[in-house]
Amino acid sequence: MDIRGRKIVVIGGSSGVGLAAVGQFARDGAEVMAVARNRERLASAVAPLAGAVRIRALDGGDRKALDALFAEIGPVDDVVLSLSGGEGAGEFRTLDLAALRRGFEAKFWAQVEAAQASVPALRAGGSLTFITSISARMANPGTAGLAAINGAIEAMIGALARELAPLRVNAVSPGVIETAWWDRVPAAWRDQVFAEQRRASPVGRLGQPQDVAHAIRFLIENPMMTGAILECDGGMRLL
Ligand SMILES: NC(=O)c1ccc[n+]([C@@H]2O[C@H](COP(=O)([O-])OP(=O)(O)OC[C@H]3O[C@@H](n4cnc5c(N)ncnc54)[C@H](OP(=O)(O)O)[C@@H]3O)[C@@H](O)[C@H]2O)c1
């Protein structure tokens, strides 16, 4: 199976992992729509792709807008869910549970809403790819909240793969990836995490959004891949 000619929707497509996927897929001949909330940022992000990508500004948590989008553009071959917020990290004793709830709203619920809205539009044999995080299984102190958000999505993958077959359902679980996601945390903390990734990970480097896009592409193209959670973390989960 080749990505060429496939109709792919990337929600969270204006930055980081989603934008890298949009670029790779469009350059290799897929018909891509990039979705995110901020229209100006979307437009400038895909501008280098010279009109090869359609854009739509909407909130991935807005079910009415999602239903309208998929009713308008369906059928589609593949949907990638690369959206998230950033709240939910911190030591458990003092963790702000209101922030953790917002974190669930921005990632778990937004990805679930977008997934359910996309199913009627997805072609048989197409694919749905969630983006989770290695925090779900890394057992790192200070990440219990993030583990819960991402673990909740990962727990759904197997059941969805069976229930929605022949649609294929997978997740990519990234490690530390150099994207704008990290702009929202204090610079000193970000620098410490990046340095630790370079020092301690078996691959000795920081992840790049293109690395994760490549993993997403593998899941889209390989017809045997369903019910899988593909780690793209440079081996950090092994430490
Ligand atoms: N970067 C890492 O180290 C890392 C590690 C593990 C897992 N991940 C996961 O990887 C995925 C991609 O992260 P990233 O690093 O690429 O983040 P990013 O650079 O911050 O990009 C997030 C994208 O999602 C869009 N978005 C966010 N909320 C949205 C919503 N409610 N509706 C529609 N679009 C929305 C953003 O655009 P707008 O703001 O304009 O909507 C943007 O296009 C996320 O699920 C993240 O949790 C990242």
In short:
The protein is α/β, with parallel strands linked by helices. It has helices at residues 16-27, 39-46, 63-73, 97-118, 135-138, 144-163, 187-200, 209-221, and strands at 7-11, 31-36, 53-57, 76-81, 122-131, 168-174, 229-232. The chain has a single domain (7-231), classed as 3-Layer(aba) Sandwich (Rossmann fold).
Question: What does it look like?
Answer:
Helix 4 runs parallel beside helix 6. The longest helix has 22 residues, at 97-118. The chain has a 7-stranded parallel beta sheet with strand order 3-2-1-4-5-6-7, sandwiched between helices. With 239 residues, the protein is of the alpha/beta class. It contains 8 helices and 7 strands. NADP nicotinamide-adenine-dinucleotide phosphate (NAP) is lined by residues 11-18, 36-38, 41, 59-61, 82-84, 107, 110, 131, 133, 174, 176-177, 179-181, 209.
